[in-house]
Amino acid sequence: MAEVKKDHLEIKFRLNDGSDIGPKSFPDATTVAALKETVVAQWPREKENGPKTVKDVRLISAGRILENNKTVGDCRSPVSNLSDAVTTMHVLVQPQVTEKEKKTKKKAKGDLKQSKCVCLCFGRRL
């Protein structure tokens, strides 16, 4: 593994099938939006359901969905300060819904009766 500068963070992006993009070194000033651009650009072409735009991508680090205006430095954890540490960010792909698709879904929902679920628990009181 190459030596990483102190003001850089080594990041790999974990895809939903368990494969990775990276690791790659990013300066602390890099925004989350720029990381998403990297994911879209480096997405393996043979994989189905890849993101088409940055808006389709969600990055999760340490259990939090990262906001586009945050920087890599803001996402640092104490573990990332260890030598040779690689931060794993999980990638979620959620394609944007177009207005046409929204209208189609509304029509479909209106046609069906809403189902309701009821749960009853019959137990003995002690």
Walk me through what this model shows.
The chain is α+β, with helices and mostly antiparallel strands. Helices cover 19% and strands 23% of the residues. Strands 2-1-5-3-4 form a five-stranded mixed β-sheet, with helices on one face.
What separation lies between the terminal Cα atoms?
62 Å
Poorly predicted segments:
none
The shape is extended
Fraction in beta strands: 15-25%
In the sheet with the most strands, the strands line up as 2-1-5-3-4
Write down the overall mean pLDDT.
79
Order of helices and strands: EEHEEEH
Rg estimate, integer Å: 21 Å
Give the tags.
alpha+beta; five-stranded mixed beta sheet; 2 helices
Topology:
Elements: E1 8-14, E2 20-27, H1 32-42, E3 57-61, E4 64-65, E5 87-93, H2 99-111
Parallel strand pairs: 1-5
Antiparallel strand pairs: 1-2, 3-4, 3-5
